Amino acid sequence: MRLVRAQQDAVGTPPSPEAEADLPLDQLMMQFESLGENCEFGLAQRRCGAEPLGLLRFASTPLSALLRAVKQRFEGLGERDQIEVRLSENGREYLVLDHRYGILYHPWMLVGQAAPEDILQREINRLPLLKQKMIEDLEEGQKIFVYRGMQPLARVLVSRLLEALREHGPCTLLWVELQDATHPAGTVEALGDGLLKGYIDRFAPGENAHDLSLDGWIALCRRAYAMARRTSSL
To answer: Is 111 in contact with 171 (CB distance < 8 Å)?
Structure first.
């Protein structure tokens, strides 16, 4: 067992297709890994009782930054001279900015809970493990990676992301957009080897990622997981 696998909560062997309908929510949500573009899906996992270790789970990852990071295997992310602890706009919590790729994320520390220097050292210690876990997850292809843009994404851009992910292993990508006239919320369609597109009723507003459509995310994950199990080795 690899080092990172020994240090994270075990997801366990994926259940058989016959058991999919009864898969508990926390176990279901552990089968997915967020790539961004914000922390909405990571919060949906938390609301379902799932707390997977994920490098980008609570990060702001614009597609251009994500593509570069994936192609470079996240090389250099988290190095001492590349990360900065800063205050959020509301001045109540800390954020961490990785200057190499332009990735901003929540360390979940409020002002007064820890000194910025202590947060910096904690991130320097933990980011190498999270990077290693991300690479392992990409190589093994057992997780379904989730990405939603802050603006609608063109198919060609999503295809570039899938191609970059699949340079590492047999990944499945769930691309999420808002429902439309021909794709009601909860629809998941297969667009090719490893690419699923899901539609949700609404996204959380930019100023409050906690105001999310939990039922919408759960419905997407159930359908995407069932579809991926039928069409791949997940």
So the answer is: no
Cα separation, 45 vs 26, in Å, equals 7
CA distance 189 to 38: 23
Sign of the dihedral through C-alpha 36, 38, 40, 46: positive
Helix-strand-coil percent breakdown of the chain, rounded to 5? Answer: 40, 20, 40
Phi and psi at residue 111, to the nearest 5°: -60, 130
* Whether the Cβ atoms of residue 33 and residue 146 lie closer than 8 Å to each other: yes
Cα–Cα distances (Å) from 150 to 35, 71, 179, in that order, read 13, 21, 15
Rg (CA), the chain: 17
What average pLDDT is seen over the chain? 89
- Residue 146 · residue 41 · CB < 8 Å: yes
Q: What tens digit of pLDDT does each residue of 107-157 get?
A: 999 999 999 999 999 999 999 999 999 999 999 999 999 999 989 999 999
Q: Three-class SS of residue 44?
A: helix
- Distance from C-alpha of 77 to C-alpha of 35, rounded to nearest angstrom: 15
Sequential DSSP letters for 160-222: HHHHHHHTTS--EEEEEEE-BTTB-TT-EEEEETTEEEEEES-PPPTT-TTS--HHHHHHHHH
- Tell me which residue of 175, 157, 164, 42 sits closest to 105, measured CA to CA: 42
Output the pTM of the full model. Answer: 0.87
Confidence of residue 192 (pLDDT cuts 50, 70, 90): confident
pLDDT tier at 232, thresholds 50, 70, 90: low
